[in-house]
## 1
Amino acid sequence: MTTVTPILANALDFAFKQATIEGKICIGALLILSMFSWTIMISKGRQIMRARKMSKKFFAAYRASRDPLEIKRAGQEFDGAPSFDLYDVGADELKYQLENNSIEINGEKRITRAAFESVKVTLERLAGEQAMGLEKGMIVLSTAVSGGPFIGLLGTVWGVMETFSGIAKAGAATLSAMAPGVAGALIATVVGLFVAIPAMFAYNFMVTTIRMITQELDGFASEYATAIEHRYVDNRALSQEISDALRNSETGRGHPDNGAPEAGELAGTADQMTRA
């Protein structure tokens, strides 16, 4: 019964046995780099695929809602979606501002412009953190792509140098004397290419996908901030704020002489603000 021999198995086995110690050290370094790069490729690939899948579900749910806090109040979760993580932290910050720095307008709670700036800073910070989280580990793949062939080339050049120096000492420049050494030297370059080629394809795909997710995340941060501003921020003009403050002051004062500004003074200030 004949056995099936894997492609290049005999050549690789022969070449590895003929490799010098320096060449085998380079091959060992390449195998360690390959192990790390494949770990990153598998884990990062799963992370990116899950991020794309869950982001689609989250965006569908978010755009079907009418209130920026509707998903948060409903308790829906989309684990793995960077956009949902940004939404969740932004919603928590908005709820905090509504509870601690809110004003009531027509029976509804609103936050001030200063409080809204705090929410915007939170969204921008989370967008940056999510982008960094997606890019984490990509340095290993870029190192495998750029460094793998050079490590293999180092092993090859060193092996060829050893081969030629051995031939020079022996004084016999025959093909049978050169072939084993050259084969042992070239295997380092072969292993380097085996490490670099898969990492190159994975790196290009992942970088493009991460860039797309990051741009999508930045766009959502702006969209979410705009929705919060329209729904929960006090957008009254300054003159309107003064008029409302005047009305509230007159309602709660009961009589004019309590140390508060007179109605005429506030009304005059409001008119000046309007003309300005």
## 2
Amino acid sequence: MYVGDLYAIGSALVWSFSVILMRVAGYQIPPIPLTFFKSCVALFLLIITLILFGESLFVDLSGSEYLRLIISGAVGISIADAMIAASLNRLGASLQALADCAYTPVITLVGFFMFGEMLSGWEIIGGLLVVSGVFAGAVMKAEVATKKDLMISILLAASAHAIMGVGILMVRDIYREESVIWVTSFRFLVAVVAMLIYAYFRWPGNLKKRLFMGFYRVDMWRTIIPMALLGPFLTTLFWIAGFKYLEAGRAAIYNQLSTVFIILLAYFFLGEKLTKRKMLGVVLALTGASIVVFQ
């Protein structure tokens, strides 16, 4: 396997562990303060990593390149994450896999329209197997709302993945030349500042209880600190590195495996049932990923 394949699969695996922790933390802390906390922790860890590796905290880029990075961080992290949170609030955890099915086709289309990238026939077959496996493994529970909520949530998720894809691919020329760690750090810095500005106008005079809730919930640190370490820190580094070395569509197929990993981890750590339907989804997705690997 190429290094890009390993990064993309590693991103899916690490993200899956983070999602399990987010499911636990989400019962106690709302999405926006949770996202702000994990972004701040990730930014702190990324700066420490830059210092340890002896990398510069400032990179000599043009004004237009910095502008693209600012848009990428503000839109690709802050707005996209908020849309995904809104989607998951409507769907509930049981339909998370169904919403995530939008990821692979959307990223593939973004790669095609932005860079003219095409998947091979076998990669398309493998990608379809991965997506079909995710669909097969998704289970709709009775308490998860109506068809209207389902359609709105899928639309939100698809739009969020499109925004996320454009946000990361619009600066691909930069992170293919510069340090992935530095680019990730700068994007998270922009995201943190953007959330601060949003919260200042949304909750004037009430930032402590609203935005900074995660910092004061010491009882939740055992969950949300590892979540931040695995999620926005390691996952984002692997995710960007995957796009650095692979075509967008191929990387997206590997990223989609996160849903399969979540199904398995939920069985082992959360006690969720591993039904025949879920096992079918796992087999289909892993078969599709294997086809992509050997291409």
## 3
Amino acid sequence: MHPSANQPELTQADIDVEIAERSAAETDAAAGGALPSHPRRDYRPYRSTTLRHPTHELVRADPEEIELVSPAFGHTDVAPEEADMTIQHAGEPLGERIIVTGRILDGDGRPVRNQLVEIWQANASGRYVHKRDQHPAPLDPNFTGVGRIVTGDDGSYRLTTIKPGPYPWKNHRNAWRPAHIHFSFFGTAFTQRLITQMYFPGDPLFGLDPIYQSIVDPAARERLVAGYDHDVSVPEWATGYRWDVVLTGPSSTWMEPEDADHA
């Protein structure tokens, strides 16, 4: 989102002040209790939320009626090779090859079986294959940046891809998103879709990013960050990361509101 012509252009320093003020306000509101693990829908440092967040009660719909016209999938619809985003084209993509694995669990720690997981991401240069992405970074003809997985009986998934690069997103002057991978989970029906983002450890952009910082509980933020796992790494081939997702309960992984623009 571009600033109005009648307003001064916001800088990262301006956003840092707003993030600090909002974090202090949330801490004061908690008054020694638990901090909220999910952000407010109208988080001012994340500029588009002030324009896009719901202001009225959601419209109720019959889920059974929706399922009659929604897409369906089965085991034959999701091919095993869709879990490897490095083999979808004639050549190999550029960048650092990585493996991401983990388990999808419910709030009681039980595995979520046969879960459809969709993944999308930028390439190693921080560029999406999308007409709205005008970031002047190169596209990779051998990397589309999308994949799908169905979890196993133990709730496990395994993804092979390229580590994405950071990219500018115009929330304010010189705004950059930390490197991340989008994950979408469908539960047992398409009306149960949840979306979140996985980050990489030690990213220097964490403290500057309004989306990441909109989660004021440090423990909840940490649940979005994958851990490097040397046992997952494959010698001479790929580095490995482990990231578990909890869909419900007090330790659930943060999920984006349905009206988010998925930056």
## 4
Amino acid sequence: MAAIGKRPGRRRSFGVWRWIILLVAAAYFLIPLYGALKFTGFSAFGTVVSTSGFGSSLWLSVRLAIVTTLITLALMVPTTIYVHLRLPRVRRLLESVTILPIVVPPVVLIIGLLKIAPPALQESPYLLSLEYVVLAMPFAYRSVDAGLRSVDVKTLTEASNSLGAGWPVTLWRVILPNLSTSVLSATVLTVALVLGEYTMASLDLVTSFPVWIVTNDQTSAQASVASSLLALFVTWLFLMAITMIGTRQARRTGRGEVNLFSVTTSTQTIGESS
């Protein structure tokens, strides 16, 4: 009884410490941003936006993010599902392979891809999309893998097959609806990676948005800080837009909610209504 009586106090103390940690983290991130914004002033943002190359570099980064996300999901989602269903013993090997892009330096990846890429693709900025797919593999795979671990994919597949559905129908109408939150989480991570990546774009001589910022930050200190803040705000806007779309869809269907760094699952969805 004494132990039971102490639980409410422990919960209150845990809640207090949680708010303290959140406030310290918020101060750690927001105070420097406020100082940078106060230093630049709002007029510096107009100067940065009107600078030559701003719109083209931003639009190029957005296109690269879209292409990279589509290729990454098209490769990782079916592969991860197939490994979970048919080759569960290969799961650890796949985890080891997908972690290699974090270990291997970007210069090595670029040189290897340039050696095998056709000349027409080497002259295209979309070569970066293939490189970004490699960089996004660790994040996309773990997001999809976490979603598959939260549902009984084997049972859902067997139930769908017993009702006469083929593999394409099972994948599209049974498995993917249960992975919608995980797929959106992988999308958030991939878009954030592409919009903030600098090393590969600069080595490939492609003027993406981060490269444009570094190239044009020598004009003045205020313009340099304003461009960095603008890049941060643009990335936040894209991530929040993806998160809001995922949250609205989750509320309509009763599935998990998508956060920037996690997926909160709720009731399991067996399949889409016909």
